[in-house]
Amino acid sequence: MRKLLLPSLILVAASLLLIRIFYLQVINDTFKLKSENNAIKIKYDYPERGYIYDRNGKLLVANQASYDIMVIPRELKNIDTLEFCKLLHITKEDYIKKIAKAKVYSPRLPSVFLPQLNKSEFAAFQEKIRKFEGFYFQKRSLRDYEVDFGANIFGFITQVNERLIEKNPYYNSGDLIGRQGVEESYETILRGIKGVKYFQKDKYNREIGSYKDGKFDTIAVQGEDITLALDADIQRYGEQLMINKRGGIVAIEPQTGEILALVTAPSYDPSILVGRERSKNYTLLYYDSIAKPLYDRGLLAEYPPGSPFKIMTGLAGLQEQVIDENTSFYCLGRRGFMVSRGHFMGCHSTAGAFQLHNGIYQSCNTYFANVFINSIDKNRTPNKSIDIWSNHIKSFGLGEFLGYDLPTGRKGKIPDSKTYKKMYPNWQWSGRTVVSNSIGQGEVLTTPIQLANMMAAVANEGYYYTPHIIKKIKGGTIDPKFTVKHQTSIDRKYFKPVIQGLYDVYNLGTARSLRVEGIPICGKTGTAENFAKIDGKRVKLEDHSIFVAFAPKDNPKIAIAVLVENGGYGAAIAGPIASLMIEKYLRKKITRVDLETRILNISLKDRYAKLGGMKEGKAIESTPKTENTKEAPKTTNNTAVKDSTKQN
Q1: Does residue 266 have a cis peptide bond before it, meaning omega lies within 30 degrees of 0?
Q2: Residue 565 class from Cβ within 10 Å (0-12 exposed, 13-18 middle, 19+ buried)?
């Protein structure tokens, strides 16, 4: 039997090999097609990309005709470069560089010589193309933006690079691909499928007809249209309110997780990244290191959240039963909470006893410092308590990538026992040591979209859906993960007293001047102190303005977070913007014209110019801190705090 095993294996292997050879040489013509590549010319038919609409059916992004000049270096003959360059408005040096680049890619295969000619440029070239053997044109469609806002959401279209061509066989030199925004996230849906046509060539390199009667030709398939969750009206309005300001606005529908608005400021008109000027304009945007118009502050800007984080401190304290609604702590007023002998966490509230309700709407630092300390000192070791606390906070999506369908983002930071084991390897720390976390300082960092999602979870009394910009795909379905409910670790019963406190922020507290008649809004102000290290010295810069809210109080339709860099108090700029955005979405009109006029007329350009001047020629390291703290001799490695009377 063993004697037959080896011959049998050889016989089977030989048979399989012969069958495969027969299939490749007789049945399957694709390898024959490749072997005859020198006698075959390939032309691609590029489909239109899918259209993009907003949630109300408004067309946002369409297509326009464009033409690329293609070149096959091996076929170039007797080119009058002077006439050619004059026709296309390029220099001879540009011509030489582009031909050299095409030869590097392939002497025999077509590559893009000059992309994205408009109709008039193409018409002039088409008249004389017969004089320039080796060149031909390739029709494409470019984006045609129907709006002048939302650039950070849409992204842009650019040529693929060689690295991607090597990685993904679908793309060839000169192909276009979506970058950033939904153009990148939904590239395979929007791009469609390009068609391919094969043409036979004779020995003189002339086309003599379709190869194999079009047996291998394929038809281009247009990209699928997509509908965004975006509300174009409030997106436009948000960008108008943020003119001459820097920051981000994120609005979410709590019941679905759909992103209603995603504003970053400053931004740009998306149409400037279309056509032959795209590269030059992109370079200008890219190298603007001060305003950073390509930096999506709604998704990427990480700051200590300040007083809005007190919502989390209160909910965690309720869940761990270290407080109830009636638990009271005494505040010293402006001196606030004593962190250690001689050092205080200042407070803007008047002296007196505070419970959860007035602690929220008056934003008492002392109250939430005590709640946090009780939460951390509840167990024998703070390591266990801080992990319990951290897990409660992370259940709201803070300190984690949220998993939304846009290609950029940051995790933020919620500290845990590992954080403090690293910070204090040889010292036993306690809740008092890291008490700055209680008011959104210390080691806590969040992004605007995380804060908006946090408010959506509070509005829903304990759950949220993964934020997403997509609403519908024509002929397809959205990712099912966007319909999965994420439950927080806080029991539903604890949300009602917190929501009542947030409601009275507008009625009795720090946002009472921002009320909109007839709309019950729940919100929280915040002011993030902003420091920078310049020439080795810690310099105080203008505070950041923060505001979070949702409305209406019952059956909420919108949750929002606003951050304005160097905007001052939370109620100064961010708060009015939030109120205006909420009214615009719910009513489609504005009654608080006074707020609107004030915000539209506010310009922070002078503040930013001053900051730019401070940076010029100096080493600067940003070290943002949050509200109600000022520089003091350090008592711990956590944020040092002392008396302050800053309003939230």
Answers
A1: yes
A2: buried
Element (H, E) at 343: strand 343-345
- Whole-angstrom Cα distance, residue 600 to residue 243? 7
Tokens representing 300 are 């990427």
Give 156-213 pLDDT, tens digit per residue: 998 888 888 888 888 887 788 999 999 999 999 999 999 988 888 776 666 677 777 7
Distance in angstroms (rounded) separating the CA atoms of residues 446 and 298: 11
Interacting residues of 154 by C-beta distance below 8 A, sequence separation 6+: 52, 60, 61, 143, 145, 181, 182, 183, 270
* pLDDT above 50 (res 489): yes
Number of H helices, E strands in the chain: 22, 23
The DSSP code sequence of 45-89 is: EPPPPPPEE-TTS-EEEEEEEEEEEEE-GGG--S--HHHHHHHHT
Q: What are phi and psi of 486, to 5 degrees?
A: -100, 115
Q: Which fold has domain 232-610?
A: Beta-lactamase (3.40.710)
CA–CA separation, 353 and 338 (whole Å): 15
Q: Say whether pLDDT at 28 is over 60.
A: no
Token pair, residue 631, equals 């520089």
Residue boundaries of the structural domains of the chain: 40-228, 232-610
- Read off the pTM: 0.83
Structure token digits, residue 552: 């209406």
In terms of phi and psi (left: phi > 0; alpha: psi -120 to 50; beta: otherwise), the region of 558 is: beta
Are 152 and 180 in contact by the 8 Å Cβ rule? The answer is yes
CA distances to 144, 276, 304 from 56, rounded to whole Å, are 19, 32, 35
Q: Does the pLDDT value for residue 558 go beyond 60?
A: yes
For 62, phi then psi, to 5°, come to -120, -150
Q: How confident is the model at residue 632 (pLDDT cuts 50, 70, 90)?
A: very low
**Distance in angstroms (rounded) separating the CA atoms of residues 196 and 466:** 39
What's at 515, amino acid-wise?
R
DSSP label at 246?
-
Beta carbons within 10 angstroms of residue 518's beta carbon:
10
The rounded distance, in Å, linking the Cα atoms of 337 and 331 is: 7
Return the number of other C-beta atoms located less than 10 Å from residue 206's C-beta. 10
Beta partners for residue 516, in sequence order: 519
CATH number of the domain at 40-228, please? 3.90.1310.10
**How far apart (Å, rounded) are the C-alpha atoms in residues 369 and 322?**
13
Q: What is the DSSP string of 262-279?
A: EEEES---GGGGSSTTHH
Nearest to 347 by CA among 567, 639, 627: 627
